[in-house]
């Protein structure tokens, strides 16, 4: 059996209980060494073979899994954050299906959630932004034209950029062409939830400058939009005493007020 497990954004205690249990039971662990906190490997049992996939190709990973399966061993494929975002996980699953190797998938806390925690922010503020666009700047891997930074920026929603800390000049250009101003609030969150986490608040116009001053070129998320400011916004209807929900009615509230 192969278990794909989301390791979380960095802090070892932010892996899920299920993910931790799977690490403790694994005979083989293949982890994304360039991004996953190695302290998570301390959850493994004494007799466990560990591979760092940063030095491996897809074919190398599959060879290890096939060998483990032939020996009746359990494998954990440990990905950073949640594998559903830029995890290159589907291509592994497809090969396992072709080979008849069973697998499952345990989600993890994504780094974009870790970045929000570092900023103490809510991505979706009523009256400000009700959508979050998660994307990346185009680098060596192409991005469809319909998903260009310029096209997505036209929505003026909250935007979270993965894999883009080294492409901030191009990113800024696309954001400005898409309609954001140079004064639009932005933030750079370096290694969210790690001990050396760094939070830098800036603007769209100063993204490249601030990153350069702090020597940040990778392992950082870029957050853009008015929600970063956490300024004026509308009160949520969810807890508004004048708003009825499936669990609370305005009339019930009025009766309670009279007691």
What would you note in describing this structure?
By secondary structure, the protein is α/β, with parallel strands linked by helices. It has two domains: 108 residues, Tetrapyrrole methylase, N-terminal domain (Cobalt-precorrin-4 Transmethylase, domain 1, 3-Layer(aba) Sandwich); 118 residues, Methyltransferase, Cobalt-precorrin-4 Transmethylase, Domain 2 (2-Layer Sandwich), CATH 3.30.950.10. The chain has eight helices and ten strands. It has a five-stranded parallel sheet, sandwiched between helices. It has a five-stranded mixed sheet with strand order 6-7-10-8-9, with helices on both faces. The chain is globular. It starts with a strand and ends with a helix. The model has no long low-confidence stretch (mean pLDDT 92).
Q: Widest sheet: strand order?
A: 3-2-4-1-5
Structural class: alpha/beta
- Based on CA inertia axes, which overall geometry fits? globular
* Proportion in helices: 25-40%
Q: Please, what is the CATH homologous superfamily of the largest domain? A: Tetrapyrrole methylase, C-terminal domain
Percent strand equals: 15-25%
Radius of gyration: 22 Å
Could you give the count of β-strands? 10
Sequence of secondary-structure elements: EHEEHEHEHEHEHEEHEH
Please mark out the parts with pLDDT under 50 across 5 or more consecutive residues, or reply none.
none
Number of domains: 2
Average pLDDT works out at 92
The largest sheet is: 5 strands, parallel
Corresponding CATH architecture of the largest domain: 2-Layer Sandwich
Q: Helix count?
A: 8
Reported by name, the CATH topology of the largest domain is Methyltransferase, Cobalt-precorrin-4 Transmethylase, Domain 2
CATH class of the largest domain: Alpha Beta
Distance between the termini: 59 Å
